[in-house]
From TrEMBL:
<dbReference type="Pfam" id="PF00704">
    <property type="entry name" value="Glyco_hydro_18"/>
</dbReference>
<dbReference type="GO" id="GO:0008061">
    <property type="term" value="F:chitin binding"/>
</dbReference>
<dbReference type="GO" id="GO:0005975">
    <property type="term" value="P:carbohydrate metabolic process"/>
</dbReference>
<keyword id="KW-0378">Hydrolase</keyword>
<feature type="domain" description="GH18">
    <location>
        <begin position="37"/>
        <end position="428"/>
    </location>
</feature>
<feature type="region of interest" description="Disordered">
    <location>
        <begin position="438"/>
        <end position="458"/>
    </location>
</feature>
<keyword id="KW-0326">Glycosidase</keyword>
<dbReference type="GO" id="GO:0006032">
    <property type="term" value="P:chitin catabolic process"/>
</dbReference>
<dbReference type="GO" id="GO:0004568">
    <property type="term" value="F:chitinase activity"/>
</dbReference>
<dbReference type="InterPro" id="IPR001223">
    <property type="entry name" value="Glyco_hydro18_cat"/>
</dbReference>
<dbReference type="GO" id="GO:0005576">
    <property type="term" value="C:extracellular region"/>
</dbReference>
<comment type="similarity">
    <text>Belongs to the glycosyl hydrolase 18 family.</text>
</comment>
<dbReference type="InterPro" id="IPR001579">
    <property type="entry name" value="Glyco_hydro_18_chit_AS"/>
</dbReference>
<dbReference type="InterPro" id="IPR050314">
    <property type="entry name" value="Glycosyl_Hydrlase_18"/>
</dbReference>
<protein>
    <recommendedName>
        <fullName>GH18 domain-containing protein</fullName>
    </recommendedName>
</protein>
<dbReference type="InterPro" id="IPR029070">
    <property type="entry name" value="Chitinase_insertion_sf"/>
</dbReference>
<keyword id="KW-0732">Signal</keyword>
């Protein structure tokens, strides 16, 4: 059933319905204040050092597309048991520095919905020094006091812990308990000051089981940011999807979320990660596909310059420049794109998330009633708006016999992936509402044991006295306007 059908079914007068539909139809897409999910945006602030159009300045940040911005990363000062800037010139104002902390925080003034957090840790900080800090009650106490002061000093709304990962990479088994102690003590201090405390959480089953007392952590953290990506990469020596929505094994996004829910994380605190980058592979198999052998290096993107990694902006730019070099395939199980460039003896492969991937993943998060979505990271979206719009974002949505969705126009311009998140939240919520509404309609008998077998004409019964012609006209007007 379409939106107009529903408005009419609820007895809205036609002029009002038309007005509402016009409004919905003409905007340049949804923003975060149009829904109540969180959209948490990590910014890898070193992206400012990338070359050419890939250099990401904080001035490019679009606060209308994020509920939470996370400045990544600060580090740990082990002598002082305190947070320290890892790039004083970019982060601070001292010595004519660029004052990144304060510039991001100041964006709240014109965007009252926005919360700005500072992340401490990240991959390059390693695990061991956080392991040592968490193991010592006196050092923990000092860190809590100093961290609180630091967060307040720069006006952040909270702290995001990015210890990658307790018990791993040089950590100890006892990190699991010590991390809980650190989080509990931090949260007591932060809650008193009305500040947020969140944490990035590894997504592999082995990491989750070893590193996190999920249920207890969930009590003290405001949000858990699930790093549901990096499931496969060139390090495997095999071509695999970076962030498969589903797979035959346990290494997929759906399993990670379901596992965390089973372990006692409330859906209302889970924020599911979306990668704005792909993983790259080089294979000696011509026309290589997922599952084929590859070398353990991959190849780099021109701006991010890291073997095995390519930002979405770099991928879409390459596809735009050299469209004939690449064969594109959609992998249904993973809900990811596979781009292959082959020369008869070898292949380069990129597995990445496009708008269709993002929409499908958002749909899963909405169906699981999660708090929302997180992205790593906004600086590899097509933030300049240089690439062509993708037209197939919602092709997997809606059992067309059950629901009639108002599908947004293709996103264009800056931040196509980030824009898709808010748009897809609304579409996924609409789809869910319609699916839940239709079986309970009085004049429809649900099929035994199922919800999905109503006759496809069921929607028109609800229109009542309004003739199908009027509805048709309305729909025509709306559709026409949406594509202006
Ligand atoms: C992803 O990598 C893991 C091993 O790290 C492997 O078990 C799994 O099969 C891979 N997935 C795919 C689809 O290749
Ligand atoms: C074929 O592609 C591989 C991988 O990109 C590359 O290393 C190799 O030089 C190419 N060979 C030829 C003959 O172009």
């Amino acid at each position: 059933m379409s939106l107009s059908d529903r408005l009419l079914a609820f007895g809205w007068p036609i002029p009002l319905a038309v007005l509402l539909l016009l409004q919905l139809g003409t905007g340049s897409g949804a923003i975060v204040t149009d829904h109540d999910r969180v959209v948490t945006c990590y910014i890898s602030t070193w992206a400012v050092y990338r070359t050419g159009t890939a250099s990401y300045n904080l001035d490019s940040f679009d606060a209308t597309l994020c509920t939470h911005a996370i400045y990544a990363f600060a580090g740990l000062d082990e002598q002082k048991n305190a947070i320290k800037s890892l790039d004083a010139w970019q982060d601070l104002k001292d010595n004519y520095g660029k004052g990144g902390y304060e510039r991001l925080v100041s964006m709240r003034a014109s965007n009252p919905h926005l919360k700005v957090l500072l992340a401490i840790g990240g991959w390059n900080e390693g695990s061991e020094k956080y392991s040592n800090l968490a193991a010592d009650p006196e050092r923990r106490q000092a860190f809590v006091k100093n961290a609180l002061e630091f967060i307040k000093q720069y006006g952040f709304d909270g702290l995001d812990l990015d210890w990658e990962y307790p018990t791993q990479r040089g950590g100890k088994p006892v990190d699991r308990e010590n991390f809980v102690a650190l989080v509990r003590e931090l949260s007591q201090a932060f809650r008193k000051s009305n500040l947020l405390l969140t944490s990035a959480i590894g997504a592999g089953k082995d990491t989750i089981d070893a590193a996190y007392d999920v249920k207890t952590l969930s009590k003290y953290l405001d949000f858990l940011h699930i790093m549901s990506y990096d499931y496969n990469g060139s390090w495997n020596g095999r071509i695999g999807p970076n962030a498969p929505l589903t797979s035959k094994d346990l290494l997929n996004v759906e399993y990670s979320i379901e596992h965390l829910l089973e372990l006692g994380a409330p859906a209302s605190k889970l924020v599911m990660g979306l990668p704005f980058y792909g993983r790259t592979f080089v294979s000696t198999v011509a026309k290589a596909r997922l599952g084929d052998e590859a070398n353990t290096e991959g190849f780099p993107g021109p701006a991010t310059k890291e073997n095995g990694f390519m930002g979405y902006n770099e991928v879409c730019d390459e596809l735009k420049r050299n469209p004939d070099d690449w064969t594109l395939a959609w992998d249904t199980a993973a809900a990811e794109m596979v781009a292959t460039k082959s020369n008869g003896t070898a292949s380069q492969v990129i597995v990445y998330d496009n708008t269709r991937s993002i929409a499908n993943k958002v749909r899963f998060a909405v169906r699981q009633k999660l708090a929302g979505l997180m992205v790593w990271s906004v600086d590899t979206d097509d933030f300049n708006g240089l690439c062509a719009p993708e037209m197939d974002t919602y092709v997997d949505f809606g059992d067309r016999d059950k629901v009639a969705l108002a599908i947004p126009a293709p996103v264009n311009g800056k931040y196509p992936l980030l824009k898709t998140i808010s748009n897809a939240i609304l579409v996924a919520q609409d789809e869910l509402t319609q699916e839940n509404v239709i079986p309970s309609e009085p004049d429809e008998v649900p099929a035994p044991g199922g919800t999905g077998s109503g006759p496809s004409g069921a929607g028109s019964k609800l229109v009542g006295p309004v003739s199908g012609a009027v509805v048709g006209m309305l729909l025509f007007v709306v559709t026409a306007i949406r594509y202006v």
